[in-house]
Design brief:
The chain contains 11 helices and 4 strands. The protein is an all-alpha fold. The chain is globular and about 50 Å long.
Length: 305
């Protein structure tokens, strides 16, 4: 029964996450919001919603290992698995002008996450700081691109807003249900197999909640819109680092399991490598994508080995 609930949870997360993102993007465009702002806010937030709901539920159920492992594991999966898959399908080029801003915030958000986790306990004040950094990022992004909003206004602005709103609402409900089923199944399996909750959070839960990003990136690569795949990874990692644990800590303090330190170092190294390749090579080739996938396979193998 647990395995059925696990599979059902994955299905709800995948379908609900995609429905949520699709509906939110349509709703935003019909309200005349620029596509760039959509990518930085609604798409990034939408694909990170499973991580948020999963982490909140995990903390409320006193399973902090899953909550923290979910964030760290998702950021690793987004770069190595999600971007790696997109790059293998079609080389991902980097817009250096935009990445100078977003890459800087990615670095700052990663640094903020490292500091928060090394403290051993993320309380209300640290949660407030993390969320505050995200609000600053979104606000700065909005004003820096404000002059382009009129030019980027979509023809869909006259479309049916209520249908898009309904689609978004259904996506949220399915995401909530999927996260609930996933956390319950993950904790049950961790206990049954004698595997720590942190490991489950870093693998099963992290990959499961990263599937919306993965599917979005695959679809983007298939349609030769790899800038969407790249922006999705950057935006999602920023939201994961600042918003997920930040919001969670505002509701309840998060005790960080000591075993997460090694994976935190791996996440830091992967993020630095990601930023370095983006600035130096200005693209992620198929070879780099294949190496990313190989590295992720070794990472997963190492966790269980």
């Amino acid at each position: 029964m647990v395995y059925i609930l696990l599979i059902l949870g994955f299905f709800c997360l995948i379908y609900g996450g995609n429905l949520l993102v699709d509906g939110a993007v349509k709703l935003a465009r019909r309200m005349g919001v620029s596509p760039l702002l959509i990518g930085l806010t609604l798409v990034g937030f939408g694909t990170s919603t499973p991580e948020l709901i999963t982490s909140l539920l995990a903390v409320f159920q006193k399973s902090e290992g899953i909550a923290v492992g979910n964030v760290v594991g998702s950021n690793i999966a987004n770069i190595l698995l999600v971007l790696g898959t997109a790059a293998v399908m079609s080389p991902v080029r980097v817009d250096i002008k935009s990445f100078k801003r977003d890459g800087t915030f990615l670095g700052l958000s990663t640094l903020g996450l490292i500091v928060a986790l090394l403290l051993g306990r993320i309380g209300f004040m640290m949660g407030f700081i993390l969320v505050g950094l995200l609000v600053f990022y979104v606000t700065y992004s909005y004003f820096s691109d404000r002059k382009n909003q009129q030019e980027e206004a979509s023809a869909e602005a006259t479309g049916n807003k209520w249908w898009a709103f309904g689609q978004t609402a259904i996506g949220i409900v399915l995401t909530l249900l999927g996260a609930k089923l996933l956390v319950y199944s993950a904790v049950t399996l961790a206990t049954r197999w004698g595997i720590s909750e942190t490991i489950i959070g870093l693998t099963v839960v992290a990959v499961g909640t990263s599937l919306p990003e993965l599917i979005t990136s695959i679809m983007s690569a298939m349609h030769k819109h790899n800038d969407v795949a790249f922006g999705n990874v950057v935006g999602s990692n920023i939201y994961n680092a600042l918003f997920i644990l930040g919001i969670t800590a505002l509701f309840m303090p998060v005790d960080v399991p000591p075993s997460i330190v090694q994976d935190l170092l791996i996440m830091t190294g992967v993020t630095v490598l990601f930023i370095g390749i983006a600035l130096w090579k200005k693209q992620f080739s198929r070879i780099v994508g294949a190496l990313f996938l190989l590295a992720y396979a070794f990472y997963i193998w190492g966790l269980f080995a």
